[in-house]
Amino acid sequence: MAARKPTVTIKQVAEAAGVHFSTVSRALSPATRARVNPGIVARVLETAVRLGYRANTAASSLRTRRSHMVGLVVPDLASLLFPAILHGIEHTLQEQGYLTIVADTANDPERHRRILSAMIERQVDGLILASATLHDAVLDDWLDGPAPIVLINRTDDSGRAPAVLSDDLRGIGLAVEHLAGLGHARIGHVAGPQALSTGAMRRRGFAAAGLALGRRALPVEEAAS
Q1: In b/e form, how buried is each residue of 153-162, taking b as 16+ CB within 10 angstroms?
Q2: C-alpha angle 92/127/75, rounded to 5°?
Q3: Quick one: residue 100, left, alpha or beta (phi over 0 = left, psi -120 to 50 = alpha)?
Q4: Geometric angle at alpha carbon 139, from 72 and 94, rounded to 5°
């Protein structure tokens, strides 16, 4: 069995690169790299690769009390909606030195609760949830927890967590206006589940668009999922 190579330290990288070890630390971290001269960053990165330096993330987490991991929870990974969202989130977090942990709740509240608990136990630095419902008891358990929460695509009815959302009201209003402008008079709506903000807001927007066109009630059929 081949002998293990000795661990290369930040101090050794600093000596080989001819800079202070704190400069190496800043240059190796995407979050602080911009504070260092680009030429020095390039020299430090080249030296680290040449020496075979590997960051000790466990030791760093103990020292800083930050894991540099973010939990991303979605209701259904098979949905065509989420790949582009996941790609954008993962790419942005990776540029900032964060690892994205993705989990799928399968629209199961108990599974959702277990996933959030497991991520908190692993000390993620934040949670991004695409899995919230309007009246979300699971979310209630963690809103005041140790990791900040941001909601995406859906929100809950409390408004306590920041959310990144599409304008569902305006979107369906534009769809109704477009169809009406083409001369269609009988316009229906297959609404999403009303327990989700997306379904509820689109249904509300559809009704408002009908009133704006002088029609008191347009037909709505609610989908199961």
Answers
A1: bbbbeeeebe
A2: 95
A3: beta
A4: 15
Contact, 87 vs 57, CB < 8 A?
A: no
Residue predicted with more confidence, 25 or 217: 25
Tokens encoding 216: 């008191």
Going along the chain from its start, the domains and CATH numbers come out as: 10-55 (1.10.260), 65-164 (3.40.50.2300), 168-222 (3.40.50.2300)
- Quick: pLDDT tens for 198-225: 888 999 999 888 888 887 666 666 766 6
- pLDDT tens digits, residue range 72-114? 999 999 999 899 999 999 999 998 889 999 999 998 999 999 9
User: What is the rounded average pLDDT for all residues in the chain?
Assistant: 86
The neighbour count for residue 111, using CB atoms within 10 Å, is: 16
In one-letter notation, the amino acid at residue 61 is S
* C-beta separation of 139 from 161 below 8 A: yes
What is the rounded CA–CA span in Å between residue 75 and residue 73? 7
Quickly tell me which residue has 């590997």 as its tokens: 54
